[in-house]
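Agenda item 2: magnesium ion complex prediction
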Amino acid sequence: MSTSTVHRTSGVTESKLMSGSQILLECLVRENVDCIFGYPGGVTLPLYDALYDHPIRHILVRHEQNAAFAAEGYARSTGRVGVCCATSGPGATNLVTGLVDSMMDSIPVVAITGQVSTKLIGSDAFQEADTFGITRSCTKHNFLVKTIAELPQVVHEAFYIASSGRPGPVLVDIPKDVFQAQAHYTPVSSIHLPGYKVFTEGHTGQIRRAAQMIWESRRPFVYAGGGIIAADASEELREFVELVDAPAVTTLMGLGGLPAEHPNYISMPGMHGSYASNMGMSGADLLIALGVRFDDRVTGRLAAFAPHAKVIHVDIDPAEIGKNRVADLPIVGDVKRVLDKLNKVLHELAPQAREQNAPARADWWRQIHDWKAEHPLLPEVSTSEIKPQHVMREIDRLSGGRAIVTSDVGQHQMWAAQFIRFNSPRLWINSGGLGAMGFGLPAAIGAQFARPDKLVFSIVGDGGFQMSIPELATIANHALPIKIIVVNNGYLGMIRQWQELFYNNRISQAELNSFPDAEKLAAAYGFKGRTIDGAHQLAPALEEAVREPGPYLLNVRVARYENVYPMVPAGGAINEMVLGPPQPVEA
Amino acid sequence: MLQLISLLVENKPGALMRITGLLSARGYNIESLTVARTLDPTLSRMTIVVDIEPQLRSQVIKQMNKLVNVLQASDLTDSPAVKREMALLRVRAPLASRTAILKEAEIFGARVVDSSTEGFALEVTGDSEKLDEFLDVMRSYGEIEVTRSGALAISLEAKKLRLAPPVPRNAAVDEADEKLETRH
Ligand SMILES: Cc1ncc(C[n+]2csc(CCOP(=O)(O)OP(=O)(O)O)c2C)c(N)n1
Ligand SMILES: [Mg+2]
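Presented output:
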């Protein structure tokens, strides 16, 4: 048996003398961690020595930021806690963007950082940074472990905090001498955090009132978000939507929470949402908000958002209730449990209630269908050039609603969200709240490690791709069969779009020249790559990429001046969308 | 508008930083802050006076309650509570004004804690306004030097303290144990 094994004899645990590094790894095993993403350094050398012959798999990324993003990709694709690891000082500071990203999108991540030895803390020692202070505001909670005695408790608390309630990142900063110290290890049997309150159940009375409001409503509308994914509540959501027979949208963070092919599903709402979604929100008399936070990218000008609607707001985080929009009926709880109970009550009330508003409900559906027909969300396609929307349509065809798609940030992200359908949760992986360029590629690495069985597309812009280009080595190293699709418009497209529309077309520092030759670039890493620019090449090239057993880099030269529509200009009301480019005026 | 917030927090490193960080991240200026251990030495009581727009008050309290180290955050601004502040001051007191100063001190309920030929050191408690007045009066006798404690407050209503109970981490442990036993 390995040295880190705990022997159990007749229910009594014999404690064993172990190093801090071994204790940490033991705790990770007990949290069912099978793989961590990281990068070593001076103060984590003792940990890496323990990892040398430990069954936990360590994936060496090429930059710590990508360790954090990969851990997120792992967490987002599975719902399990993603783990990343970095050394003190520069290693820890390189994690920060990833931590903020998981904070914004409520992703369970545990970050382990090395720290200089306890006696050196505060002395400006080599590679010392105040990681505890720096990461205070970008974690759900963080710890500085001062003694080996508290290490096991802290590690388990970190996992508990990261994964319970509203999930988020937790950082554990461990000084070198704590890794090296020896102590008798006893497994932790309980966690006591008296100030950490998680509200899961939902108030029964409120749930009853919600059911009444829902049946009384003539124009109900479901606005579901990332909370549905986090709570694993998509089954309950589907049941709810069918029971109430309400139209439903899922936000950028909630895509796949309701199958895209579901008849009640409309699309994504908000700044680049569909006409029907935004008109639906604006016309509803009851908005049923499930695991959402009324983000400005969804609501547009808040004062004009869903002006006729009463709001039922279900969220596990009490601080989200009433933060942006006052809820007429707040329910604090786990959206899965709340929906489960709500569905039961709705069922009970159904026989009397269903009939009363039937005609109004039928009118409402007619109205929704009219909006859908008036301005359907359809991908632009051309025969002379590759439209970026066309790329998404083809990826959608190959995915069939089942592939994992990670996206970077920019125009391509919006097109992917608009045109690729997701029929289950945890397939669509993107940096929603933070909008961190460079996210797409490393997130795909994490997702592919977590889900080796899955087809993974990583859709990236020519800008964002170059932010995480070093990870091509990680992909090559592990022969990860990720299909990297660069939507190459030669611009920081989203920036160019705004400069065109709102800054008199003065394109300032948004043109991207000197993109590398994709075929040679991929070949340099030992895998296949190709550049295409003709519309007729698109489908076969994507098929070839998918057929390839290993990684594939497909650089797609797309129409350079395409803009994302519909668009709600910043500060506008969401029913005042710009639906497309200005049409040429007829003479 | 000034808000009065009372917090019960775990007496742990970083706890104070989390609370003040939450306020500074939103650009709120802290007018005063007091912290000290409670009867239970693992806990501290904190009183904060901070300038927050009234409509954002409840959001800040909720955010504070979310902090792992915070057992309870309550807004005492409009609820029945006793508020006290303390000031220590040194006032120069030439022979001619000594009796007058002592008389004023008596009116305000201030105590002399040190006396020398130079002057007095005084201690006074009360609400903010009373302290302001007293300091104004003392200033009229000449230069003074002051330290103020910041507000302390106690709610006059018993507030139910809801704490999270311990949670077993059995399920995960058992699964991992099985793995451990078969591992070599
Ligand atoms: C780290 C980071 N820096 C800057 C930005 C601002 N930004 C948002 S979209 C965008 C352009 C992205 O360009 P590209 O990756 O080529 O994607 P495209 O919009 O062209 O599809 C920029 C610079 C950001 N979101 N993240
Ligand atoms: Mg681009």
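Discussion summary: The CA atoms of residues 100 and 476 of chain A lie 28 Å apart.
Owner for follow-up: CH.
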